[in-house]
Design goal:
about 190 residues; two-stranded antiparallel ribbon
């Protein structure tokens, strides 16, 4: 499910950015996956007149990541019964899925092979990398990330399983919203299982 949502988000991004041919998409993917910190992780990237990177803004807020995180929220919304931490696991999943989607389109077209399978062995190093990066996020960064995902989910017509009449304060507060949506700490029952 999450892979299909991410591929759909990538295709939507191509359309929004008017990347209509394989050559333009190949150039985008080449830039997006280049460097120690891939550019697809950022909401906005500024280049100088020579095409050199000047600044990156909005870490983990790229539209593809927001769409993927929103899909995860939408799929798991019914299973969530309160929490006390940010959605680290969901964000790691969204980041790895977004990177994988980009790796499938290096030619400008979606090409899947058995070597590209989404599995723990292939993606464990990236999961660890993103996990460390997520640990460094501060409250403001989480607010921005969750607000972006909330905007996507609202466009889809889902309101995070909160009653807007009795919980209106939560809907405008991403930190409180995160506390309603996610639980990253294992319960005693989870550990015993």
């Amino acid at each position: 499910m999450i892979n299909k949502a991410t591929i759909s988000a990538l295709i939507k991004y191509w359309e929004d950015e008017q990347l209509t041919d394989a050559t333009a998409r190949t150039e985008y993917v080449k830039k997006a996956l280049t460097g120690p910190t891939p550019l697809f992780l950022y909401r906005c990237i500024k280049y100088d007149a020579d095409g050199l990177l000047i600044k990156r803004y909005g870490r983990f807020q790229h539209p593809i990541i927001a769409e993927t995180l929103a899909s995860h929220i939408q799929v798991t919304e019914e299973a969530i019964n309160g929490c006390d931490k940010y959605c680290r696991g969901a964000l790691v999943l969204a980041l790895v899925a977004a990177e994988r989607a980009h790796s499938l389109v290096k030619s400008g077209n979606i090409v899947k092979t058995n070597a590209d399978r989404f599995n723990e062995n292939a993606w464990a190093p990236r999961i660890a990398f993103y996990g460390k990066s997520i640990e460094e996020l501060d409250h403001d960064a989480w607010d921005a990330i969750l607000t972006k995902a909330e905007m996507v989910v609202r466009k889809r017509g889902l309101v995070f399983g909160v009653d807007p009449d009795s919980d209106s304060a939560i809907l405008g507060n991403p930190a409180a919203l995160a506390s309603v949506l996610y639980f990253d700490v294992e319960s005693d029952e989870d550990i015993a299982a």
